[in-house]
Each structure stands twice: as C-alpha cells, then as structure tokens.
Design goal:
Radius of gyration: 28 Å
Number of domains: 1
Structural class: mainly alpha
Number of helices: 5
Largest sheet: none
Shape: elongated
Order of helices and strands: HHHHH
Length: about 80
C-alpha cells in the first residue's frame, strides 16, 4: 500500500493533502477503490476467457454460405455490361 502511495506524483499528493486534514486514510481508501474498479476479479477473468474461446470458435468455423459471392470486380463488370 505504501509503495502505491509513494508513487503518487508529488503535486497530486500535496493537492490531496491540502483538501483534507488526514491524508493517509482517504488516500488509502481511494487507492483500494481504484484497484477494485480496475483489476478484474477471477469471475470476470473466467467470463472474458469464455467469451474469447467462443469468439475463436466462431472465427475458426467454416462459412455457412452455399455459394461463392461475386467479387467487387465481377459486380462492376456486370454493371457495365447492363
């Protein structure tokens, strides 16, 4: 915890200190709340991994189209001949 507080830039620390009389408790609580917001939990990580596995399976699956679609060049040629 103190390592995180030491890494705060001096100006930010001083500005925070001027705003409140006791800096240690509010800053520590703020650091904890920032960590809770920005560091994913195990449950969130599992959900992310499951989503990535699903996306990878979808990407690897063969296309379901029965026919080959025309390229843009072929479509332009057809338009010119009309």
């Amino acid at each position: 915890m103190t390592t995180l507080l030491k890494k705060l830039r001096k100006e930010l620390y001083q500005a925070r200190a001027e705003g409140s009389g006791s800096i240690a408790a509010p800053t520590a609580a703020e650091v904890l709340s920032l960590l809770e917001e920005n560091v994913p939990t195990r449950k969130e990580l599992r959900a992310r991994r499951a989503l990535m596995r699903t996306l990878e399976r979808m990407r690897a699956a063969a296309p379901k189209a029965k026919r080959r679609f025309s390229s843009t060049e072929e479509i332009q040629r057809e338009d010119r001949t009309r």
